[in-house]
């Protein structure tokens, strides 16, 4: 559940959202997007949680892979629905992971 | 609740955790750490959510600010408690935000 990412550098897309109407259509589309992302070239992993805000961090091998996923047609349609229906607001941050550290008991 | 960060570049610390025993001491320390982080030089904001995993992303102006916060004594003690009691496992990723995009309805 903690993504098994390779040695840095790699990329993280941090998606933070506040929901307006996170209905069943949202839940289904969300699961579908996760399934699709996993098939994308350069996808490295995904972590997601929701409390007052939703946070989803996906990991990628390059900016090109992120761009390729952004252009996926189903993903484009989902983002449109996100803007028109599901989200009150959101932020997307594209970042380059320079260092990481993992701990396990 | 979506952090108001400045124009990139800036830094994001992505903390992903799986809890073992997230008791009241954890809740209090967690709130205290958030309060302390906000007083640190170079702190830009924080976003947090918990489902099966916990995700906390804090934003900073520089690697030096991140290092300074890491050396805070109360924070060091909290991390020790995290490793010995609260968490089953966690990952920390230090990343440089290169681009961002925000949407609001």
Features:
homodimer; 105 residues; alpha+beta; Alpha-Beta Plaits; four-stranded antiparallel β-sheet; 3 helices; 4 strands; 41% strand; globular
Assembly form of the protein: homodimer
Strands of chain A, count: 4
Strand order within the widest beta sheet of chain A: 2-3-1-4
The chain pair forming the largest interface, with residue counts per chain, is: A-B, 41 and 41 residues
Per DSSP, the total helix count of chain A is 3
User: Mind telling me which CATH architecture of chain A this is?
Assistant: 2-Layer Sandwich
Q: How far is the first residue's CA from the last residue's CA of chain A?
A: 15 Å
On the 0 to 100 scale, the average pLDDT of chain A is: 96
Major sheet of chain A: size, sense and barrel closure? 4 strands, antiparallel
The fraction of residues assigned to DSSP E strands of chain A is 35-45%
Poorly predicted runs of chain A are none
In CATH, the topology of chain A is named Alpha-Beta Plaits
Overall tally of structural domains of chain A? 1
Encode the helix/strand succession of chain A as letters: EHEEHHE
- Assign a percent range to the helix content of chain A: 25-40%
Shape of chain A: globular
Kindly provide the radius of gyration of chain A, computed on alpha-carbon positions and rounded to a whole number of angstroms: 14 Å
Give the class-level CATH name of chain A. Answer: Alpha Beta
């Amino acid at each position: 559940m903690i993504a098994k990412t390779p040695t840095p550098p790699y990329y993280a897309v941090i998606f933070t959202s506040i929901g307006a109407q996170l209905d069943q259509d949202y839940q289904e589309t969300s699961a579908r997007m996760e399934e699709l992302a996993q098939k994308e070239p350069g996808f490295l992993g995904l972590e997601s949680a929701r409390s007052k805000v939703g946070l989803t961090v996906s990991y990628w091998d390059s900016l090109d892979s992120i761009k390729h996923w952004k252009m996926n047609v189903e993903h484009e349609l989902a983002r449109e629905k996100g803007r028109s229906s599901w989200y009150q607001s959101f932020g997307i941050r594209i970042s380059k992971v320079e260092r990481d550290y993992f701990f396990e008991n």
